[in-house]
Design brief:
The longest helix is centred in the first third of the chain and has 45 residues. The protein is globular, with a radius of gyration of 26 Å. α6 packs parallel to α10 and α9 packs antiparallel against α10. With about 250 residues, it is an all-alpha fold. Helix content is about 75%, strand content about 0%.
């Protein structure tokens, strides 16, 4: 007679025990990806908005009411600090603080210094010391990266003006108004449409495009804001080019 051995509890393979804390961790990981992706795109789109849209508001405001434009700066700073103090809106606060320096620079330069072309980049760099200070407090923080991105886009645009010799037209436009600006715009556009001007426009646009797209592979939040700010430079420059043509 053949007897079949019975399995006791000691013969069975140990079963994996899943604790409630592990289940919570798995669930958290499952929710992390879409949440992080949504945060990335939020920062990307918000950065584009803060670069492209307000410039359309500040451009006419600073020419007509420069003191009003300058007075908006502390309001933006206070709002940015308040948003930063709240966990749910801290990203808004970081981006707004970085944008505040650009608004301040635009108010100062286009309000009172727009005739001095060589002062444009130094004035636009007004936020860099603050960005450097932030980098010591929050290493590679969102405010620092966003401020650097805004300055970089401005520097590339100014570089194009110097390479294509558009600075003389810039100076003339700052002293003229009304119908007198039309021939200046036409001459500047003709300069841009030369092989030299077109080549540099393509090269610098590709530079901005490459530097703007590359950070999108990163998982760091601040690099997505950097990408949005850099890519929006192409958009803003295109809008000003269309405005020059229409004028």
């Amino acid at each position: 007679m053949i007897s079949i051995p019975s399995h006791t509890s000691s013969d069975r393979a140990p079963e994996a025990v899943v604790y409630p804390s592990e289940l919570n961790e798995v669930a958290l990981n499952l929710r992390e990806e879409p949440t992080q992706a949504a945060k990335h795109w939020f920062l990307f789109v918000t950065a584009i908005f803060l670069v492209a849209v307000p410039v359309c508001i500040q451009t006419p405001l600073v020419r007509l009411l420069p003191w009003v434009s300058l007075a908006v700066t502390p309001l933006l700073a206070v709002l940015g600090m308040w948003l930063r103090s709240r966990f749910a809106s801290r990203w808004w606060g970081d981006l707004l603080m970085g944008f505040t320096w650009t608004w301040l620079a635009g108010s100062l330069y286009w309000g009172w210094l727009r005739w001095e072309t060589f002062l444009h980049l130094p004035v636009e760099a007004v936020g860099l010391p603050f960005a450097a200070w932030e980098s010591f407090v929050v290493v590679a923080g969102l405010v620092t990266i966003f401020t650097l991105a805004l300055f970089f886009g401005t520097a590339v645009t100014d570089l194009y003006f110097y390479l294509v010799n558009l600075i003389p037209y810039w100076r003339k436009l700052m002293h003229l108004e009304g119908d007198m600006v039309r021939p200046i715009f036409q001459s500047a556009i003709a300069q841009m449409q030369t092989p030299w001007g077109t080549s540099w426009a393509i090269l610098l646009a590709l530079l901005l495009l490459g530097i703007g797209v590359l950070p999108l592979i990163s998982k760091r939040n601040y690099w997505w804001a950097f990408a949005g700010a850099v890519l929006s430079t192409i958009l803003v420059d295109a809008l000003f080019w269309l405005a020059a043509i229409s004028a």
